[in-house]
Write a structure and sequence with these properties.
Elements: H1 3-9, E1 11-14, H2 29-32, H3 38-43, E2 46-48, H4 53-66, E3 74-77, H5 90-96, H6 99-115, E4 120-121, H7 145-160, E5 172-178, H8 197-204, H9 206-213, E6 218-221, E7 225-226, E8 229-230, H10 235-245, E9 251-253, H11 261-265, H12 271-281, E10 286-287, H13 291-301, H14 307-323, H15 336-342, H16 346-359, E11 361-365, E12 377-380, H17 405-413, E13 419-422, H18 432-443, E14 447-453, H19 472-482, E15 488-493, E16 509-512, H20 520-528, E17 595-597, E18 601-602, E19 606-607, E20 613-621, E21 627-637, E22 648-657, E23 662-669, E24 676-677, E25 683-684, E26 688-695, E27 702-708
Parallel strand pairs: 1-2, 1-10, 2-3, 3-4, 4-5, 5-6, 6-9, 12-13, 12-14, 14-15, 15-16, 19-27
Antiparallel strand pairs: 7-8, 11-16, 17-20, 18-20, 20-23, 21-22, 21-26, 24-25, 26-27
């Protein structure tokens, strides 16, 4: 390969640059300003946002006819929580606490994407999140490093399978965003991140590492700074930690435009310096800017960049193409006929429905749910008949094909249903006529189901909100309906934990549905009518007020903790006007069953490296219906070399119990689970006192003291 051909392999361009798929000739605005020549396009290495079997085949065939060496393109796309069959958003999937279903969702997404011509998905997103103002919390599985790591593994297994080379129903996964993107200051996208190395390793890195340990083929850089240096130009992060310490030898890709953004960050004077810093940091593919193609060859000629740096980047890209079998079959699994059979099949939709049922979280229930089929129901609200239930990363999905709540309830209740539907208001605006129609429907009903939420565009990338309450018109609608003094069930369609003031105190029941995906209405209807029992548990705390943010369960105690036995009234770490605690804690979720925890016990009061201890607790379903309980084990290290969180999730078990049935749940706690990063970044445990907590969430649990001896 010539130097120019090698450098061109390192650029990723969007679909309009390419011939053969109907997109050519549409290069305008910022794309046109890149200054990309036809020769660069013909030698480029990968395409962004391409899907559709016949279009992929046509584009690849045309590209190969122009490429001197016959090097095929990699087709990459954001297949985050489904391709055409859209599963719940990742934050919702996290609330299922179900790794098997999470893996299955990724497997189905991979099958549909692969047959449609996609080779690589930009997923999973495993950023740990603590600030619901940040729009991209919708893409994460929550605030806990252990749970995020487990989901990271499950998603990678689902996308890639056991044999990426031989299994054409799979795609290569790309874990993102490396690193600590979820810690952006003030919950504002693309903003600064400032963490100590110890915090980075303790909380933010475990999920990325878990994805790579599972064999994830690619890593995407984050937009933010890490220790004062933007990730895309950060040699310490990418070369030292990712490549050398962790041994990652896969492809590293920038996020959209991130190489050129080194200039705006202030660590590069121009595009040439941006290219210099990114290639030295180990970035193999530059997405949608042209610093590499315009400047790398010149930097090599001036001996400022060693050509072997470019060679190793190209080799990694070619190796991934080889692993995917593209040199033998550049079209891989793309097959228009099979695409029609597989994509959005009934079996895939059923899987999406099952996961949607398990992802919803019952936040409140004052005896109103499940709904009685004999009572007249008024279904009101901007999401009553709204198809906007897929979430912000569902570009290949079909909103029109998504099942609305009105459709789901209507089909369940049948033609003779006592169901009346009214919009009441839009998501952010209302008319008097809408309100009057809703009030009339509500007066004639016995129970009100109020479907509220956020527009999809209020979540995802570049969708940060300082006020995380529902829009005012929706709160006003709820107040008007509350005045009728009838039972109100609120169903929430949203992508972040909300400030629920104006909702929590007014509603008799609240079901957090998130964005449930293609089968939204059917899944929510099953839960409302009691055909399914809610089992979702929060993986991100709901704040009492946005003024608490960030608020998360595994915080530090401080030297003046509120509520300590010897605490003063005023001079403690507290707010004067609101509680310290979130409205709804990590791990919380209600059920139509009532689970009773018996006395918990430890097999020993002492744990050592050689001798783990067993924690046993009896859980009984005291309710009238079968249900799933998520039993959660937390640990606190009472005295560490650095301060330790008040609780850390160490394990959990899901148990399905019939009415009156009991189960003995046992956890084995190992010494290695008590290790943490010390001030010198060593990873080890300390002898001393600990407390184990077992219960249904992070705030309601039994305390069991034990001691680590070394």
């Amino acid at each position: 390969m010539t130097l120019d051909e090698k450098v061109a392999q390192l650029i990723q361009l969007a679909v309009p640059f390419y011939e053969g798929a109907g997109g050519e000739g549409q290069i305008t605005g910022p794309m046109d300003s890149l200054g990309i020549t036809q020769d660069t396009v013909h030698n480029s290495g990968s395409v962004l946002g391409m899907a559709g079997a016949q279009d992929v085949i046509d584009m690849q065939r045309t590209h190969l006819s122009h490429n001197r060496l016959g090097i095929p393109l990699l087709m990459m796309a954001d297949i985050v929580h489904g391709f055409k069959t859209i599963f719940p958003v990742p934050l919702a999937i996290g609330c299922s606490w179900d790794m098997e279903l999470a893996e299955k969702s990724a497997e189905i997404a991979a099958r549909e994407a692969s047959v449609s011509g996609v080779h690589v998905t930009y997923a999973p997103m495993v950023d740990l999140v603590r600030d619901p103002r940040w729009g991209r919390v919708v893409e994460s599985t929550g605030e806990d490093p252990y749970l995020n790591a487990e989901f990271a593994r499950a998603f990678v297994r689902g996308f890639q399978g056991q044999d990426l080379s031989g299994d054409y129903d799979r795609v290569a996964a790309c874990v993102k965003h490396f690193a600590a993107y979820g810690a952006a200051e003030a919950g504002r996208d693309y903003n600064t991140v400032d963490l100590s190395d110890r915090q980075l390793r303790e909380f933010y890195l475990p999920a990325y590492k878990a994805a790579l340990d599972e064999g994830c083929e690619m890593v995407m850089t984050s937009f933010n700074t890490v220790d004062g240096i933007p990730a895309t130009g950060n040699q310490k992060l990418m070369r030292k930690l990712l490549r050398e310490e962790w041994g990652f030898n896969g492809v590293l890709i920038s996020d959209w435009g991130a190489v050129k953004e080194l200039i705006a960050h202030g660590i590069a004077a121009d595009e040439s310096e941006a290219a210099y810093k990114a290639i030295r940091a180990g970035v193999d593919i530059e997405m949608m800017t042209a610093c590499y193609v315009h400047h790398l060859a010149e930097l090599v000629e001036r001996k400022e960049v060693e050509e072997p740096l470019i060679d190793e980047a190209v080799l990694r890209i070619l190796q991934l193409k080889q692993k995917l079998g593209l040199f033998d079959n550049p079209y891989r699994a793309a097959d228009p006929e099979r695409e029609r059979e597989i994509v959005f099949s009934d079996a895939h939709r059923q899987a999406a429905r099952e996961l949607a049922v398990k992802s919803c979280v019952l936040l409140k229930n004052e005896g109103v749910l499940p709904l009685s089929r004999d009572r007249k129901i008024a279904l009101i609200g901007p999401f009553a008949s709204n198809h906007d239930v897929l979430g912000p990363w569902s570009w290949t999905g079909s909103k029109e094909a998504a099942v609305t709540l009105a459709e789901g309830l209507g089909s369940k209740l049948g033609e003779k249903a006592k169901l009346v539907i009214a919009e009441g208001c839009g998501i952010e605006s209302a008319t008097k006529a809408q309100l009057q129609e809703a009030l009339a429907a509500a007066r004639d009903a016995e129970t009100i189901v109020l479907a509220l939420g956020e527009h999809t565009d209020m979540n995802g990338e570049a969708a940060c909100r300082a006020d995380i309450r529902l829009p005012q018109v929706q709160l006003e609608l709820l107040r008007e309906l509350r005045a009728l003094n009838k039972p109100i069930v609120v169903v929430l369609f949203n992508g972040r934990p909300l400030d629920l003031h104006g909702v929590y105190e007014e509603a008799d029941a609240i079901l957090e549905a998130w964005y449930p995906g293609s089968e939204a209405g059917n899944a929510v209807a099953e839960l409302l009518l009691g055909e399914a029992n809610p089992s979702g548990r929060l993986t991100m705390s709901f704040p009492y007020s946005v003024g608490q943010v960030p608020v998360y369960y595994n915080a530090f105690n401080t030297g003046r903790p509120q509520g300590a036995p010897d605490a003063q009234v005023r001079y403690v770490s507290q707010y004067l006007d609101i509680p310290n605690e979130p409205l709804l804690p990590f791990g919380f979720g209600l059920s139509y069953s009532e689970f009773e925890y018996g006395e918990a016990s430890l097999s020993s009061s002492v744990i050592t490296e050689e001798a783990p201890i067993k924690l046993t607790v009896k859980v009984t379903n005291k309710g009238a219906v079968a249900g799933v309980e998520t039993v959660q084990l937390y640990v606190r290290d009472m005295s560490g070399e650095v301060v330790r969180p008040v609780k850390e999730l160490k394990a959990f078990r899901q148990v399905n119990l019939q009415p009156g049935e009991s189960a003995e749940i046992q956890f084995v706690l190992q010494e290695e689970q008590l290790r943490y990063y010390h001030s010198d970044l060593s990873h080890e445990s300390d002898a001393g006192e600990f407390i184990a907590f077992v219960g249904p969430n992070s705030s309601t649990n039994t305390r069991l003291p034990f001691r680590l001896e070394k």
